Amino acid sequence: MDIVKEVKKARRGNKSSFEKLIVAHHLLLYRVAKTVLSNDEDCADAIQEAIIKAYQKIDTLREPGYFKSWLCRIVLNECYQLVRQKKNVINMEEWVEPHIQEKGYEEVEVEQMLSKLPEAQSQLLKLFHIEGITILELAQIYEVPENTIKTRLRRAREKMRELWDSKEEGSLWKNGKSK
User: Fold this and answer.
1) How far is residue 116's CA from residue 85's CA, in Å, rounded to a whole number?
2) For residue 109, which of 66, 168, 44, 33 has the smallest C-alpha distance?
3) Would you call 74 exposed, middle or buried from its count of C-beta atoms within 10 A (0-12, 13-18, 19+)?
4) Cβ contacts of residue 153 below 8 Å, gap of 6+?
5) How far is CA 14 from the centre of its chain?
6) Are the CB atoms for 137 and 69 separated by under 8 Å?
7) Phi-psi region of 178 (alpha: psi -120 to 50; beta: other; left: phi over 0)
8) Phi and psi at residue 174, to the nearest 5°
9) What is the DSSP string of 85-136?
10) Above 60 in pLDDT, residue 174?
């Protein structure tokens, strides 16, 4: 499927072309939403709102080649809005009975390490390393130069390395005693 052609058709009002574009990017939309939101239902809400806004505003997209980045930006903005709305709400089901997921120890450790980073750094590392979004696409999503993304990634990796090193030092033995 030629994305640029489909975007041009969708801009002219072709609903099936817009639908094809959404279907082609649905997994990416979920992954981007999941970097900000932990709950699948919240992800679905944010994606749904983003699709509606994208459909309504597709004529404002200047360059059809940037559809993917444009759509990701809309999803991120919807996720942030949902986070702001739910900031002070506590779900009683989650509070009483914590949600436990079966995952490998390494994946859990990585998630714990990422949770200790500032939100912006954690999200950037997830998008780049886990979701595979390129530096160019991240620059378009965050609306900053590519070198800024590279610098932010480097700083986030350095912070992650510091956290990892401090974790490793905490488990070492010194003078016959564990720290």
Assistant:
1) 23
2) 168
3) buried
4) 124, 125, 128, 135
5) 29
6) yes
7) beta
8) -130, 130
9) HTTT---HHHHHS-------HHHHHHHHHHHHS-HHHHHHHIIIIIS---HH
10) no
Instruction: Determine which helix (DSSP H) or strand (DSSP E) holds 45, and give its type and residue range.
Output: helix 40-57
Spatial contact of 73 and 141, defined as CB atoms under 8 Å apart: yes
Helices (H) and strands (E) in the chain, counts: 9, 2
3-state secondary structure (DSSP) of residue 57: helix
Dump pLDDT digits (tens) for 13-52: 889 999 999 999 999 999 999 988 888 999 999 999 999 9
Cβ-count burial 89-125 (b if 16+ within 10 Å, e if not): eeeeeeeeeeeeeeeeeeeeebeebbeebeeebbbbb
Of the candidates 23, 6, 18, which has an alpha carbon nearest to the alpha carbon of residue 56? 18
177: part of which helix (H) or strand (E)? strand 177-178
Helix (H/G/I), strand (E/B), else coil: 145: coil
Residues in the chain: 179
Per-residue pLDDT tens digits for 76-129: 999 999 988 877 655 555 555 445 555 566 677 778 888 888 888 889 988 888
